[in-house]
Fold this sequence. Notes:
Blueprint: E1 6-11, H1 15-26, E2 31-37, H2 40-50, E3 54-57, E4 60-61, E5 64-65, H3 66-75, E6 88-93, H4 98-107, E7 111-114, H5 119-138, H6 145-154, H7 171-181, H8 189-196, H9 200-212, E8 216-221, E9 229-234
Parallel strand pairs: 1-2, 1-3, 3-6, 6-7
Antiparallel strand pairs: 4-5, 8-9
Helix pairs in contact: 2-3, 7-8, 7-9, 8-9
Amino acid sequence: MTAPEFTVLVVDDDFRVASVHVGFVEAVPGFRVVGQAGSAADALRQARDLRPDLVLMDVYLPDGDGLEVVRQLLAEPDPATGSGSAPAVIVISAANDLATVRRAVQLGALHYLVKPFGFAELAERLTAYRHAQERIAALGDAATQDDVNRLFELLRPTAAPPPEEGRRLAPTLQAVLDAVAAQRADVSAQEIASAIGISRTTAQRALTQLEQSGLVRLELRYGSTGRPEHRYAARRPR
Length: 238
């Protein structure tokens, strides 16, 4: 059975920042970006048209407030069922004042990330969301209190700890880590795949795990057009 793929709308008024966040999302298995909006009006239109599962919502937008967009989406009925329906929301903003944070919580935001943040912080929250949705799908029509407790626990992300001293990585992870460490410059998943004879998908999955564990770092390289390229480098001892 194929694992579900969750669709994401990225909202940010800075297209460069939005591109970085798009790259972050698409580096996490099980997530696909279906839209990118730079204004409140565009975010509202795309959310209505695309019906994404999840929205990364900036607060400060050139024509309005991102949280007001969230409020409007919550108030609208689903055209298919007539009942209230809205995507899940992770707020991504430089705003760190208590009033804004409180309002996001009151609107039901899953998480609130203060900019700037790294890939691992967002990946933890996306992974927690995926695990919670998978758990919901496995439940029947009714949930026990233990089920409810477990769901809320799943939404609290736990960072993957780095391997303990002397503990071995899985062979593929170790091979990928060794290949990255052997390079003097950053490398792509395709370059690692070619170097050690694995598929690009396997290399990308391993690189994502290593980045989340703090063993490699992710860097985004911008070209003249298109999305930024994901490049990886080993974290050197200080």
